[in-house]
Structure formats: structure tokens, C-alpha cells
Amino acid sequence: AQSVTQPDIHITVSEGASLELRCNYSYGATPYLFWYVQSPGQGLQLLLKYFSGDTLVQGIKGFEAEFKRSQSSFNLRKPSVHWSDAAEYFCAVGGYNTNAGKSTFGDGTTLTVKP
Amino acid sequence: GAGVSQSPRYKVAKRGQDVALRCDPISGHVSLFWYQQALGQGPEFLTYFQNEAQLDKSGLPSDRFFAERPEGSVSTLKIQRTQQEDSAVYLCASSAARTAYEQYFGPGTRLTVT
User: Fold this and answer.
1) How far apart, in whole angstroms, are the C-alpha atoms of residue A37 and residue B88?
2) Do A67 and A52 touch, CB atoms closer than 8 A?
3) Which residue from B42, B29, B33, B51 is spatially nearest to B96, judged by alpha carbons?
4) Among A18, A87, B2, B100, which one is most buried in terms of CB atoms within 10 A?
5) Which residue from B2, B3, B4, B1 is spatially nearest to B34, judged by alpha carbons?
6) Residue B64 vs residues B38, B82, B113: alpha-carbon distances, Å
7) Does A102 contact chain B (CB < 8 Å)?
8) Cβ–Cβ under 8 Å, residues B62 and B95
9) What pLDDT does residue A113 have?
């Protein structure tokens, strides 16, 4: 069965500081991996995705993530956080073929940005 | 339309009532997904359609939950005899591909069962 763990429930960073949000996954084959952001009362917006190829992927809003197969991780990073980045972030894993319709999400990390 | 829309945005139901939640996917999107998001948790998969075919309904929590997409576009999630534990945000997503590739989410319907 596929699963996602986001070890940090809540992270606080100062505006302008760097950010790393952790994500570990369990999946029996090559996964699709995603990061989404959710602002209060809003749906989820896709930040970036990994399917294959270059293990460092760039996304919107200056975010990037690195797929490390040996660590089963897909951590999200941003070099300099803006106050508008305060939101909840979800990592998700999806698959090919028979489970292609199912994405499994972590429980999210809430990001607070201090001025 | 520009994105996935869901209606109503908020629904309050008395325990035992039936509710119907609507999802309008992005025009032309083949795949449609329903998720349930409880407070403080990530979305949990409920069911998945490819065009009008329901290919996976393994996440539906009970036989009180039913989803349909009869013409391969708009979808309705119906919950019969609502219970308090059904209170959650119900998210709909659509995808142009036949897999979970790049899903676009709607704003969700917040269901409160009193």
C-alpha cells in the first residue's frame, strides 16, 4: 500500500529565511510525487510534480523539490520565504497503471511566516 | 470554465438527511476524483472516474456514499442518511490524463452534519 509521511506538523520561519519541508513516501514501484499548497478556504494548488528524469524539479512560486530514491524522500525547498507563503503544504504520491487513479496524501505541514 | 467548480460551497445537514454535492470539472478533462478532507488531515481518496466509468470506489467509507458521472462531465457525490462523522470538506479534482497526473482541485464543499 502507498503512504506518505510528513514528519513536521507545523513549521515557523522568518520572512527571507530558507525553508525545507520533509516528505517520505512508501510505494512499491516508481512513484508519481507531488507537492500541493492549500490556503484557508481554498482548494489545493499544484506546486510541482516528479514523474521521471531529473531528480531536482522546479515548481511555481520559486519552490523546488528533490527526489531521493534511496531515502524515499521528496523534500520541498525554497531559498527565501515570503509572507504570502504561509499556508498548508501537502505531499502526495500517485501511481501508474492499476492504481493510477489514486493519490495518497500526507497530513500536511502548516507553515507560519514571521515578519 | 476556468477551473473546477463545486457546489454548494457550504452545506449544513441534520443527521439522517440526504445530501448531494456537485462537481463541474475542467472542460474536456477525462478523469475526475473525489476526496474527503477531515479537519487537520490530508485529503483521502474516495472514488475515481475515467469519463463515465467509475474505475475505483475503494475509498468510499460506506454504502451510504454514492457517486456518479453519467455523461462523463459533471459528477455528483451523494451521501444518504448523513452522520456526524461525515462532516468534512469534500474535494473534487479533474485531470486531462487517464491517471492521477496533475490533478486540478476545486475549492471544496464543507459539509457540517448537526
Assistant:
1) 18
2) no
3) B29
4) B100
5) B4
6) 18, 8, 14
7) yes
8) no
9) 97
Task: Report the Cα A18 to chain-centroid distance in Å.
Answer: 15
Contacts of A45 in chain B (CB under 8 A): 105
Q: With a cut of 70, say whether residue A99 has pLDDT above it.
A: no
Exposure string over B72-90, b if 16+ CB within 10 A, otherwise e:
ebebebebeebeeebbbbb
Task: For residues A21 and A7, give the distance between their C-alpha atoms in angstroms, rounded to a whole number.
Answer: 9
Q: Hey, what's the cell of A88?
A: 498548508
Do the chains contact at B42 and A101, CB–CB below 8 Å? no
Q: What residue spans of B1-114 are helical by DSSP H?
A: none
Give the torsion sign (CA, B74, B59, B35, A65): negative
Identify the three-state secondary structure at position A20: strand
Q: How far is the alpha carbon of A75 from chain B, nearest alpha carbon, in Å?
A: 17
Residues A103, B33: C-beta atoms closer than 8 Å: yes
B23 pairs with which residues across the strands? B6, B75
Residue matched to cell numbers 499556508: A87
pLDDT at A94 over 90: no
pLDDT band at A89 (very low <50, low <70, confident <90, very high): very high
